[in-house]
Amino acid sequence: MLPRANPAGLTVFTASPVPVVGLPRELRTEEAAIRPNRGETLRVDLTVAEGARVSQGVTVAVLRGDPQVSLVAPMAGRVAQVRLGPGRRLIEIVLFREDALGRHHFDRTDAASGDAGALRRLMQVSGLWRALRSRPFGHMPGPDQQPAAIFVMASDTRPHAPDVRAMLEGREEDLLRGLAALSQLTEGRICLCQPRGGALVGPGAAGGRIERVQTGARHPQGLAGFQVHHHHPASIARPVWDIHAEDVADLGELLRTGVRPDLRTVSVTGSALTEARLLRCQDGANLRGLCHGATRPGGHDVLSGAALDGHAASWLGPRDRQVTVLARQAPSPRDHWFRAALSRAARPLPIIPSAAVEQAFGVALPGMALIRALSAGDDETLVKLGGLSLLEEDLALVDYVTGAKPLLSELLRGALDRIQAEEAA
Questions:
Q1: Total-model pTM
Q2: pLDDT for 378-407, tens place per residue?
Q3: 95: helix, coil or strand?
Q4: Residues contacting 421, CB < 8 A, separation 6+
Q5: Which of 74, 75, 388, 410 has its CA at a distance of 20 to 30 angstroms from the CA of residue 424?
Q6: 184: Cβ–Cβ under 8 A, 6 or more apart, which residues?
Q7: How far is CA 35 from CA 61, 92, 281, 319, 419, in A?
């Protein structure tokens, strides 16, 4: 699954369609779960108990600090298990599917008429508020936060990511309706990031508020962080939001029908599969169910996300639109304790400036300078170089190209957490 270096030594990542012929097929797993995003802490108050039977879209929990923000059932079913950690931190809420329970209808009258406050409330109670991500720091926006700009991502250059343009085929009106609604949440720019080709929306969309941004075909040029840095750098005083274009079309459909769409497009690929799949499944779908019947014999690991930035999981992550199934590698023999001690005591290997490193930063940021700032814990320089626009996913390719230890994406998260703590003090 991971790309190989070409003979010149430059690792090339180009956007490529999923190797699946035809339209995505619908596959609803028997189980699904509500979980925090990776690295996210959600303290919740439950509104249902174990054993409750709920319709798709019904609120099952609200945030303790912001009770107007709901977590909703991804499908109609029975609440099979609720797992909370200390301080009522959400671990997971598992549901078993029961289609007969139907789907919840939301009152969208005021939101559809142009009331910005009603639109916020509708997005929060329907669970669509979670689709928004604020930079810096990468958290869900506060209920009353005002962004300086919103980036709508209709591009994804991760290897084997599903084609966003194909996702939106037949949903053009809902996309337009969703974009117009987003324009009520900010007085700033609405940037629609899409690959080269025909425009997804016309020049008059949302009253002319939509700015079309053309992304490159090489990874990581289709990631939000690099587009934000290039077109509207994020800062603490002027946060920038990003959201996937499919979620924007879902918002448009919610405003049109009063029902939140219950499926998203996901690619299932990897070296341990007999066939790649392009599916429409529910949020939080059971990953084993998505690849059932298509895995090769032998051990394998299932990742929520792409091979570059995915993580081992049982459930589809809230923002993930890829599932990667990799053949499990045999464990390497353990080094003698003395050799291991010498290895740990050795100085870290240097990162050599190269074209591959610059490409891994999207040729948009000073790669080596950022690496030095992260390695030295120089948060002030990181901010000056544009680090506040980035999140861990933006440095996944850098980690792969450099083989750095500790991972630069982990160093970035540590820096962002320190900066946020200083601002809150």
A1: 0.92
A2: 999 999 999 999 999 999 999 999 988 889
A3: strand
A4: none
A5: 410
A6: 114, 116, 119
A7: 11, 5, 16, 11, 26
